[in-house]
Every structure is written in C-alpha cells, then in structure tokens.
Design brief:
The chain is α/β, with parallel strands linked by helices. It has 10 helices and 8 strands. A 5-stranded mixed β-sheet has the order 5-4-6-3-7, sandwiched between helices. Strand 4, helix 2 and strand 5 form a beta-alpha-beta unit. Helix 6 crosses helix 7.
Length: 233
C-alpha cells in the first residue's frame, strides 16, 4: 500500500495517515471499537486504572509501528518503551519478561484472561471517554486513480458482499475460521460480533468523526507528520 501497488486493501487507521494522497476510504469494511478496542495487559492485576505516568520508562510489547493500537497508546502516554513484536507473540513477550505490558489486538482482546493475563486499560473505552466517539481501528481503502465509475461500482459490490456474509453468518464464519489461527467458533463468533457489524456495512457519521479526531490528535501530538483529512466513498 505504501508503494501504491494494491488497488484495494485493508489498512490500519494509523497507516492511512501515510496513504491518503493515493487512497480513498471505503465506508464499507471498517473495524470499529464502540467503547472497546486494543487492550493493555499485564501479568498481575492492578486495582486502580493506570495513569500515563505509570507507563513512563516501562517496556510495552506493541504489535506494529503503524497499528492504530500503537497510535492510541501513544496518545494516552508517550514515555513508554515500545517493544515491537508480531501481534500473535504479545503474550509470549509479557510472560518471558521481554515486556512489562502487552498491547493486544485481534482475538487477543478476548483470550487474554484465559492466558492468565489481566486487563490494565481498554483503549477503546478510554478513547470514548476522551472524545465521545467510536475508535476506528481498520478501514478498507481503494486507489484514487481507478476513476469514479470503477470506484463506485466496486464499493457497491463490496458492501453487498459484507451484507451477504452477515446474512449467512454461520457459513461465512466457517469459511473465515480457516484463517483464524486455531481459535474456536465461539471465540470467532464473539470477535465477529465486535468488529463485523453495522459499522462494517457502512461507517457511521460518529465513527467518521472518530477517525478524523484520531488523525487530528495524532498530528497535534507530533506523532503524525501531517494533518490528514480522510475522504470517504
């Protein structure tokens, strides 16, 4: 996507800040956290919610530099030490002592408790308290140079495919679980309920505002190099 090789692709909302000159955001296909999102976990329970100062100098296992999770955590607290590892090795990094905390995404937001870890902070909940808007995590984008007619026809078909999958949820889930890294159908169904829903069919105005606020705050905090305004189709 950074090289513009892909005509259509899924990207993090963080990464879109570096792609906006080449791609438009499709209103269908988004993953949005509505008062939930990436979770900061630790090996032991904390009684009080953390303050930004609690992370100062602490090592946090982070699932990628351009993930929305990393951007949101930097908006919460900037003085931690990121330890970049693949998202499916966050738990391992915490248990091995390579990191003091782990920032979990994907199904890890559901399975961290059964792994013996404790939630320290839900960034989606924190974000809602900050701006009273959902936290968009990932979007699907389409290359601008495809032209209006192609973009329009593809986005319509793409939306129809999502509506069809939701109308045939069990069959679609069986197919998706082939790529589910061994998670059970119950966990897969719960995860789908969180991130494949009405916002995935068509991004709400509130979620669009949340996306814009995320980029604005990232720029104001000096994390993003320029102020980007996403364009939706």
């Amino acid at each position: 996507a950074l090289r513009g090789e892909l005509e259509v692709t899924a990207v993090s909302c963080h990464a879109y800040a570096y792609l906006a000159d080449r791609y438009l955001v499709m209103r269908s296909g988004s993953s949005v956290g509505e008062q939930y999102g990436p979770i900061l976990v630790a090996p032991s329970a904390k009684v009080e919610p953390p303050k930004a100062a609690d992370l100062r100098g602490r090592r946090v296992a982070v699932p990628g530099q351009l993930t929305t999770a990393f951007l949101a955590l930097q908006l919460f607290a900037k003085d931690f030490e990121p330890v970049f590892v693949p998202f499916d090795r966050i738990f391992e990094a915490v248990f091995s002592g390579a990191a003091d905390y782990g920032l979990v995404i994907h199904e890890g937001q559901i399975t961290y408790e059964e792994k013996g870890l404790h939630k320290v902070l839900d960034l989606g909940q924190w974000w809602h308290e900050e701006v009273a808007r959902p936290l968009p995590l990932g979007v699907d984008v389409i290359r601008r140079d495809l032209g209006r007619e192609t973009i329009q026809s593809f986005t319509e078909l793409f939306k129809e495919s999502i509506e069809y999958a939701l109308a045939h949820r069990s069959e679609a889930l069986d197919y998706a679980l082939r790529y589910g890294r061994g998670i059970s159908k119950g966990i897969g169904d719960r995860f789908v309920g969180m991130y494949v829903n009405h916002q995935t069919v068509s991004l709400s105005p509130e979620a669009e505002e949340g996306f814009q606020k995320l980029l604005e705050r990232g720029f104001e905090a000096g994390i993003l190099p320029s102020l980007v305004r996403p364009e939706f189709v």
